[in-house]
Amino acid sequence: MQLVVFDVDGTLVDSQAHILLAMEGAFSALAHPMPDRAACLAAVGLSLPEVMLRLAPDLSTADHAALVVAYKDRFHALRGAAPSQLYPGASEVLTRLAARPDVVLGIATGKSRRGIEHIITSHGWDGLFQTVQVADNHPSKPHPSMLHACLDATGVAPEHAVMVGDTEFDMQMAQAAGLLGVGVSWGYHPRARLGPRVIDDFTELEGALRMIWDEATV
């Protein structure tokens, strides 16, 4: 049995516009200058408290907590008005992989439980993922806790599992948990930060996985 674990923002879902607008709303609520776009996107993938600490290190713990609350409220409102779109090919590839008897799917995301449940429901993915790990229950990436939980939940050994993500944090988390990582170039970190296995389109993922699994049997 093979386990394929997916990040969400920047990997499955193009949430860039919502992220930047929610950041703008959060920092505006505290009358604090918003960091530039590049800094905001570079922090995507971390848990929100870690993101706010990184983006505004001069603020107090209470202010960081207030930024997290304001961001969540703004993001929730934006998502309700216009859901984030999937990247081309994401749904089709997930459906094909889930249909395979030798593959199970998982999620490891910096999103909250509320956020990921909304995405799963809105895209009709109920039952598609055997394990869903979120920031509510784990340390921030790149800590391997979420992937350890995915492995425990599915009973799959690390050498039979792959992490698919768009950030350096995803690749570092995979390495820390003993998994191979596949980076996607359409997300929020540049290709150079994603390691040796990077795809440019969802149509390439199944081939990349096949190569990994074939090499493992040699």
TrEMBL record:
Keywords: Hydrolase. InterPro entries: HAD-like_hydrolase_sf, HAD-like_sf, HAD-SF_hydro_IA, HAD_2, HAD_sf, PGP-like_dom2. One of its GO terms (molecular function) is hydrolase activity. Coiled coil: none annotated. This is HAD-IA family hydrolase. PANTHER family: HYDROLASE-RELATED, PHOSPHOGLYCOLATE PHOSPHATASE.
